[in-house]
Amino acid sequence: MPKVTLSFVETLRYTRKVQVRIPPGMTESQLETALGAAERSSDSVESFLRELKDWGVKAIEPVDDDLSSPDDQEVECDDYEFED
Fold first, then answer.
1. At what angle do helices 28-41 and 45-53 cross, to 10 degrees?
2. Out of 3, 28, 42, 70, which could bridge 47 as a Cys pair, Cβ 3.0 to 4.6 Å?
């Protein structure tokens, strides 16, 4: 019986909320700029919040880091290879 190797991409999505304090006088436009910069340079919620600290934005409470139950998930077989 022939063999085929399947390659999968699995995407998990989590929704998290955290309250933050912003510097006095920070405008909505400045907050949007800070959020955009953090999105471009971060790969996790923790690194996102570290980046925001450079803008004076600080988390009030710890972020829920429970990864046991994603809000959404998707799987896709994006490639396959026949074995000899």
1. 130
2. 42
